[in-house]
Amino acid sequence: MRSSACRRIARVYYANIWQTLHPLDEVPLAQHRTVESDLAGLHIRPPHAESTRYATVNIHEFGLPNGIPVVFFFGTPQRGDAGAEFDSLASERGIRLICPTRPWYDDQSVHPSFDAVTDPVLEYLKISGITTAFAAGGSGGGPFALHLAINGGDLIVDCTLLASMGLPESYAEHVTSPPSRELLKTFKPRDYDAWQVAFAKWGLPRDLAHGAWGDFLIYFDYLPKIGRGIDKKVYVYQSESDPNAPLASVQEMLSEATAVEWKIDKSACHIALAQDASNTLVGEIFRAIAQRSRHAP
Question: Can you tell me the distance from the alpha carbon of 262 to that of 257, in angstroms, rounded to the nearest whole number?
């Protein structure tokens, strides 16, 4: 379990990089179920687990233990324990919030890939007896939610994206946030030491900077290859004026998706989301998922 102080570092980083103008209040870390093993679960080690095939994925759960399963991927550079902020909200909406940490955040020997996240998460859902779940992701977590939906078969009902990153070339072309553009410039030559120096300026620990490095490798090397023929419905909450999440890059990413419902709203912006202490839009997303679950198989 990460301490609330460590989680606050990530939140303060977001406030700095996206120029939120007021300090974020400390949010006590909720009591929650932390899942860790060679496959993906504390106290859950199935006999068929293969530690050589699956990276260790630490999964944090919040909300109702018997609620509607929602796998939520947080953005860069956050771990799954960031879901503590939504614990009460998930409970109110009847949601079992399942929040994976991408394994390279905890183990620098892990080679970053979509499969290193998706495969253990799907296995965890199966061994937990979950037969239907919903995928969701915010910011840099959006592509991971999309990959889970694409590869989840009948287990994953649909996918929700919130202020998501889209295809990298379009993202790099349209993003206007000065810190984000600086990071893109730093990443372009693939200089790991320079990347660590850049993140240190924001007071970010080396492990989270390494996690962000792994995320960016996936965005630029693997995201364009996951395929655009997405047969699951995708619900997109996006702003037309988010300097960190260009709408055009998401539109390009989903250009060949069979069904997309666009919810264009100025509140689906990184700065607006950071300033909303009530997490209003997240609550709306949970409510919408709960309604759709009534009609799920």
Answer: 12
What burial letters (b/e) apply to 191-217, b meaning 16+ CB within 10 Å? eeeebbebbeebebeebbbbbbbbbbb
Where does 18-137 have alpha helices with state H?
A: 87-92, 115-127
Q: Rounded to two decimals, what is the model's pTM? A: 0.84
How does pLDDT run across 52-76, given as a tens digit for each residue?
234 689 999 999 999 999 999 999 9
- What one-character DSSP code corresponds to residue 112? P
Helices of type H across the chain: 4-17, 87-92, 115-127, 142-151, 168-174, 178-187, 192-200, 206-221, 247-253, 270-275, 280-293
**What span, in angstroms and rounded, lies between the C-alpha atoms of 59 and 34?**
6
Beta bridge partners of 73: 137
